[in-house]
Amino acid sequence: MLAYKRVAGSAAQTSSKGASSHRVTPGLSRKSRRHSVTCEAKKVALLGAGGGIGQPLSLLLKMNKLVTELSLYDIAGVAGVGADISHCNTPVKVSSFNGPEELEGALQGAELIIIPAGVPRKPGMTRDDLFNVNAGIVKALVEAASKHCPEAVIQLVTNPVNSTVPIAAEVMKKAGTHNPAKIMGVSTLDVVRANTFVAEAKKLDVKDVDVPVVGGHAGATILPLLSQATPPVSFTDAEKKMMTEKIQNAGTVVVEAKAGKGSATLSMAYAAARMAESTLMGLSGEPNIYECSYVQSDVVPDCPFFASKVLLGPNGVAKVLPLGNMDAFEQACFDAMLPELKASIQKGIDFANA
C-alpha cells in the first residue's frame, strides 16, 4: 500500500460539515492498516501509459500491492515503458498494448480503467483549449471500454475533466452500460495541493491535513472548503482569497515553470495513484474510504456533475456526501463559478451527442 493513503472516518466520526478524514498511523503493517479484507486479483488498465502522466503513474501502480495485473496502452511507444517497469521487483504482472488494434486486449478483464490519454497543457493554453483533441480521444476510449469491459470503474484524468466526464457518461448511456457510480473524474490533485499549501501556511504536518475541494477541476471551478479543513484552521478574508487562488492556479504555475516542456505530470500521477488505491480498497470491501471526486450527482440542483467528497465501495461510488456548511467567502465563490461549470458540462454532453 502506498504511504500516502488516507482512510476517512466512519459516520460516527463525521462532523456537521461533512466527512472528516484521519490518517493511518505511519509504520503500521499492511495487515494492521486494513480491516482483514482480502484483496482479490485486480487488473488495472492504464490508457495513455506512454505520456507524461502515464509513465510515472505506471511506476506507482507497479508498486501498489492492491494491483495484480497492470495493462499499459497507448497509440505508440508503450512497449518501452512496459519493459522498463517490468524489471521492478514487485509481483504486479505488466502487459503492453500498442495502437487501436490492441485496445481490446488491454481492456479485457479490467476492473479499473484510468485514462490520462490526451495532449497536455502548454503555456498560454486553458483547459478549454484542449477540448477538441482530448474530447475525441476520451470518446473513443470510453466507447471501447463500454464494449469490452462495461462493468469496470472508469477514472478520467484527461482534461478538461469538467467536460470529459460528461462525455464518458453520455457514451455509456448510448451503449446501454451507463452506471454513474463507475465514472469518476480525478480531481484528487486539487486536494493534494490544498493539503500541501495549507500545511505549509499553518506549519502543520501534511499527513494531518485534509481540505475538501469541491466544484470542478479547472480554474475558478476549483473550490477548496478551507472552513471545513481538518484540523480546523483560520484565515483572514485576504488570506482565504490568496490561498484559494493559489490552489486554483497551481497547474498554471507548473506549466509556466516548465516553460513549454510539460505540465503537472508528476503531481498528477501521484494524485491519480492515490485515487486508484482508494478505489481498489473500496472495490475490495474496505470500509470508510473517502475521496473527493468529480462525479454525477444531485448534490447541486441543475448541475448534474460536481466534485465533492464520496464514499467508495465495492461498486465504485457508494455515496456522495453533502457539501456541508460554507462560509460567506466560499458561498460567493460557489455562486460565481456555477455558470462556468454548467457550461463545461453542457459542452461535453453536446460533443458526445453531436
TrEMBL record:
Residues 188-351 form the Lactate/malate dehydrogenase C-terminal domain. Residues 43-185 form the Lactate/malate dehydrogenase N-terminal domain. Keywords: NAD, Oxidoreductase, Tricarboxylic acid cycle. The keyword Glycosyltransferase does not apply. It catalyses: (S)-malate + NAD(+) = oxaloacetate + NADH + H(+). InterPro entries: L-lactate/malate_DH (IPR001557), Lactate/malate_DH_C (IPR022383), Lactate/malate_DH_N (IPR001236), Lactate_DH/Glyco_Ohase_4_C (IPR015955), Malate_DH_type1 (IPR010097), NAD(P)-bd_dom_sf (IPR036291). Residues 11-23 have a biased composition (Polar residues). Signal peptide: none annotated. Its EC number is 1.1.1.37. Pfam families: Ldh_1_C, Ldh_1_N. The keyword Mitochondrion does not apply. Homodimer. This is malate dehydrogenase.
